[in-house]
Amino acid sequence: MREEEVEIAIKVVVVGNGAVGKSSMIQRYCKGIFTKDYKKTIGVDFLERQIEVNNEEVRLMLWDTAGQEEFDAITKAYYRGAQACVLAFSVVDRDSFEAIESWKRKVEAEVGEISMVIVQNKIDMIDEALIQPEEAEALAKKLRLRFYNTSVKENINVDEVFRYLTEKYLEKLNSDEEEEHISPQIGSDLINSESPHLNPKENHYRHKNGKHRNKNDDSTITLQPNKRRTKGRKNMFTSRCSLL
Ligand SMILES: Nc1nc2c(ncn2[C@@H]2O[C@H](COP(=O)(O)OP(=O)(O)OP(=O)(O)O)[C@@H](O)[C@H]2O)c(=O)[nH]1
Ligand SMILES: [Mg+2]
């Protein structure tokens, strides 16, 4: 199979307390817009964007989850199959900062260890900050995660967050492929493992013919992109909404 026929898709979940700016971040990234009004997300939504990183076309599926606790039971089902995660808080919301570790645990309980990044949003409101820069840095160090300051409003660092996660994922994918080269799996075109939830490798797969294939259990929400990547054709702002 020629390289351009292989599509790489990454499911990214964006989590964090209500009103920290998760939906705004995804809208900014996928549609290039920002709205001042707050409309809490009910359950889950998703948008997608295609980008090029290291000469690879990558389709990012960005899953926007509700931050309000009342939706926890619904949203966690959607973490499964994720390969990357944004842990978001707001510089003007102390509780959202303190909740980051618990969001990380919730995601890891469903998908194991995946690439994550901590994002402190609303940096345009730094004058009203309720978190000291050292505190945010200490948290990132403790969790051993990259930390970004963003302003979705001013469009600061949003692209960088998703580019970083994509690069991290591609690194992992390539190192897994090298491993696979050493011990190929018979009868499988997936890079996968037998342990459905806690082995992060389960989530690494290139999928062929535009189809996602996944060995997760029945409760996993499986994405099915409807078209194959065509070389030279970039669809920068595509969107699909689904669910609930
Ligand atoms: N000043 C400022 N406001 C922002 C920024 N990002 C988002 N907001 C505002 O913050 C509010 C909440 O944003 P949302 O994106 O809806 O928050 P959310 O995290 O998706 O909230 P839930 O869906 O309830 O989990 C909205 O009024 C946004 O306009 C930012 O970078 N700066
Ligand atoms: Mg939202």
Automatic annotation (TrEMBL):
For this record, an example GO cellular component is:
phagocytic vesicle membrane
- EC no. given is 3.6.5.2
Record's subcellular location: Cell membrane; Cytoplasmic vesicle membrane; Cytoplasmic vesicle, Autophagosome; Cytoplasmic vesicle, Phagosome membrane
Keywords carried by this UniProt record: Cell membrane, Cytoplasm, Cytoplasmic vesicle, Developmental protein, Endosome, GTP-binding, Hydrolase, Lipoprotein, Magnesium, Membrane, Metal-binding, Methylation, Nucleotide-binding, Phosphoprotein, Prenylation, Protein transport, Transport
State the residue spans of region: Disordered: 176-238
Q: How does it sit in the membrane?
A: Lipid-anchor
Q: Which BP terms in the Gene Ontology apply to this protein?
A: anatomical structure morphogenesis; protein transport; system development
- Name the enzyme's class: hydrolase
> What does the record give as the reaction this protein catalyses?
GTP + H2O = GDP + phosphate + H(+)
Does the keyword Protein transport feature in the UniProt annotation? yes
Q: Which cofactor does it need?
A: Mg(2+)
Question: Could you confirm whether the keyword Cell cycle appears in this record?
Answer: no
Sorted alphabetically, which InterPro entries does this protein's record hold? P-loop_NTPase (IPR027417), Rab (IPR050227), Small_GTP-bd (IPR005225), Small_GTPase (IPR001806)
GO MF annotation, one? metal ion binding
Q: What family is this protein classified in?
A: Belongs to the small GTPase superfamily. Rab family.
A Pfam family name for this chain?
A: Ras
Give the matching PANTHER family.
RAS-RELATED PROTEIN RAB
List compositional bias (Basic residues) regions by residue number.
Answer: 204-214
Name the record gives this protein: Ras-related protein Rab-23
Report the source organism: Potamilus streckersoni
Subunit structure and binding partners = Interacts with SUFU.
Q: Which domain of life is it from?
A: Eukaryota
